[in-house]
Design brief:
9 strands; homodimer; alpha/beta; five-stranded parallel sheet; 37% helix; 277 residues; Rossmann fold
């Protein structure tokens, strides 16, 4: 892969990279369609990265379907599908990690303490292997996007990071490979995340700027479903991801909720459009 | 710098990089001469990196002489001398670090707990800026060389790391920018490091394989000088840098000694030649 990328670069090709953990859905495919537009060579990686899963999380159970993934990636124009093995990525005696500090402390960083170290490390590795001019990430994983942007800037990595709007089901549910875990009765409860964001948008648009008021309304809606266990509902500065009391600068409301088995996340940047019915 | 390096790569030039903290001596110049031989474009960086100095260490006092350094680097054939400012390298809100675990725990890692995190981080940054095909490091900083090799392998960085033999004064003292701190009476005491290595070599060559016996003999010699405070004298596996009891695999004896003000280091890989009178 590295040799192919170096050849492509020397031939003047612009490489665009979409890293994924596979089990592709329309959200991933939209990232690839965007990638197809902004570069000459589209590289998609499929790698369920063990170092970003904590003990007791769903690394073993994370859904996988490589054959289908490869077909879907090709259909939307991927030139190369890169799918390393765990042993290739983390051989015996592996011992190097990339840690981004400030922006990983809040939100998912609180309940998943090693998650972003794993994400930053595997992205650093993949960027060095694939050597892209640009990489495309989804805004659904908002903290991941902020973390990667921070790493790229801090470590002087020579690539552009593109953030793409969250792709949603027609009813508003954010697409996620983990939605496959939802049982019948839980699908409705899962909608409370996107509907909660809609409530937040409504309050904001009607002039509310007090974070606590918006958070309270969203929590009330989400916890009206018995299946739901809220991990967090927070309003943060979009750059630092620190909690804020008053919405004055660009801010994001971010949610993490366990809906039955899966832990789902969603978010909304105040003032932006929101494709939720 | 990054744009220049990208142009050089696209033009098919092989970039060789020698990162330094400046105050150049013959040891640095030998790295550059080697770099000159193995590439088309020789880039030398001069940057006293604050993140690899702990509290109470000599960051502020570290010797600097940029004008002389630039002249010396040019004389031995550097095409580009890169000297970023601290604010450019670590702007406000900087928060990303590269940590290499296993190989940084022993030796200097014990008395300088954040040192190798700083070294790995700044090298990752410089490699991303300079985009070299190869980088040249001295074996005098043996643990640094092992750490950088480990980081490059673990993070899939696409460059070769060349390790160069330590350059010594005619009497055997390893060249170091910190030798400038040695006062008159301490110069002789500082020689006890290289002479200690000579003692270790003699014992090894006469068949001694017990690490404790060799260490004891070296410590006795070094501590025969009143000015000397031993930080460590250890014998380690050259790959893992873990202590060993018996010299069976490739092993290194590594020393760190405070000689008056400066803390000096030196090392010897058993079985290799040693240019000490």
């Amino acid at each position: 892969m590295q040799a192919r990328s170096e050849s492509l670069r020397l031939a003047g090709k612009r490489i665009v990279f979409v890293p994924t953990m596979g089990y592709l859905h329309e959200g991933h495919l939209n990232l690839m369609r965007e990638g197809r537009k902004i570069g000459d060579s589209l590289v998609v990686s499929i790698f369920v990265n063990p170092t970003q899963f904590g003990p007791g999380e769903d690394y073993e159970k994370y859904p996988r379907d490589f054959k289908r993934d490869e077909e879907l990636a090709s259909q939307v124009g991927a030139d190369i599908v890169f799918y390393p093995t765990v042993d290739e990525m983390y051989p015996a005696n592996y011992q190097t990690y990339v840690t981004v500090e400030g922006v990983t402390l809040n939100l998912c960083g609180q309940s998943r303490p090693i998650h972003f170290r794993g994400v930053a490390t595997v992205c650093a590795k993949l960027f060095n292997i694939v050597k892209p001019h640009a990489a495309v990430f989804g805004k659904k994983d908002f903290q991941q996007l902020v973390t990667i942007r921070r790493m790229v800037a801090d470590l002087n990595m020579d690539l552009e990071i593109h953030g793409m709007d969250t792709t949603r089901e027609p009813d508003g549910l954010a697409m996620s490979s983990r939605n496959v875990y939802l049982k019948d009765g839980e699908r409705e409860a899962a909608l409370s995340l996107s509907r909660g964001l809609k409530i937040a948008q409504g309050l904001y648009d009607s002039g509310e700027r007090e974070a606590a008021v918006i958070i309270e309304a969203v929590k009330n809606h989400i916890s009206s479903y018995d299946t739901n266990i809220i991990d967090y509902v927070k309003i943060c500065d979009t750059e630092t991801l620190e909690d804020i009391d008053q919405i004055e600068r660009e801010s994001v409301i971010a949610l993490a909720v366990k809906v039955g088995l899966p832990r789902l996340i969603d978010n909304y940047v105040f003032g932006e459009p929101l494709a939720i019915p």
